[in-house]
């Protein structure tokens, strides 16, 4: 029986696509109708060689792109070709692609039909349309730094720290159209969040973990797709973008632990703020936290009130009141640089009568009690200097004398 040349060419192209996978069984998604078509491959003796299109922008995405680049063009690697889509501007992914001579595409990409097997999205920030997803035979993977469905959205790492999660991780999912972070889970890895970890530290760890988990997933993509797990709604939470308004401390409502987590979550990008003598100040470089018990209950401090520990050169600020008040502390060395210091007795503390950090800058400030005269600040000049340094908006700051008698 004669076979037309067109049929032969179609068969050869089909064989090439299957040989590129070489990993058993692959699900191909029909995003228009939500159907799945089973595609059998002819061999499973060797690793697949993927033609990849990478979507990313920031330093978190660079870690995955870096590892994919190292897997490109080697006999042991799993990447046949690698090209990059990024956004306008001087973003880290664009710089890395240019330095390593990776082909760059602007967003949205053109002419991707038949050129790529699978897409990879890492910290991209744009919703991929259905017509683009459907052009990738094996779909588009997403590296997401949380244990989905917890912390869907653009800022999962910040909210992990902000809410005090003890366990997090990385998820590899398939992109679905119309919504972020709802696709089926192909792979997950858990991670125990270290105590006092910052968002920057956690982000660096999860970026490296996510890059290796991505390679692991690509090495057995067909098997992962066959055994994919749909996300449920149980435990689903949303992680919205971090806003400037989050940096305001509300002393009456936030505990010492909550303020500490807020600083570790956003402090490196958005300095925490409060009011001082009617002006906005930024609280920088916190050193830690502790609980300070006041043995003299007659003082009965209110949230935002401050006291000074001259031996440790520390300014203590009272947070939300418990049955026993637990102040937060701001330490010194020339600027505000810490939450708390080891517990001290009240006899070691120098109360600052009438001195208080108010919480809400949008409200009319309550009548302000002037600072006590300098004789009340014996050996506390460093504290005065620290107030001068953190008052970013104060053009006529108080000058601290070199010594006090």
From TrEMBL:
<keyword id="KW-0496">Mitochondrion</keyword>
<keyword id="KW-0809">Transit peptide</keyword>
<keyword id="KW-0648">Protein biosynthesis</keyword>
<dbReference type="InterPro" id="IPR002376">
    <property type="entry name" value="Formyl_transf_N"/>
</dbReference>
<dbReference type="GO" id="GO:0005739">
    <property type="term" value="C:mitochondrion"/>
</dbReference>
<keyword id="KW-0808">Transferase</keyword>
<dbReference type="Pfam" id="PF00551">
    <property type="entry name" value="Formyl_trans_N"/>
</dbReference>
<comment type="function">
    <text>Methionyl-tRNA formyltransferase that formylates methionyl-tRNA in mitochondria and is crucial for translation initiation.</text>
</comment>
<dbReference type="InterPro" id="IPR041711">
    <property type="entry name" value="Met-tRNA-FMT_N"/>
</dbReference>
<dbReference type="GO" id="GO:0004479">
    <property type="term" value="F:methionyl-tRNA formyltransferase activity"/>
</dbReference>
<dbReference type="InterPro" id="IPR005794">
    <property type="entry name" value="Fmt"/>
</dbReference>
<feature type="domain" description="Formyl transferase N-terminal">
    <location>
        <begin position="117"/>
        <end position="217"/>
    </location>
</feature>
<protein>
    <recommendedName>
        <fullName>Methionyl-tRNA formyltransferase, mitochondrial</fullName>
        <ecNumber>2.1.2.9</ecNumber>
    </recommendedName>
</protein>
<dbReference type="InterPro" id="IPR036477">
    <property type="entry name" value="Formyl_transf_N_sf"/>
</dbReference>
<comment type="similarity">
    <text>Belongs to the Fmt family.</text>
</comment>
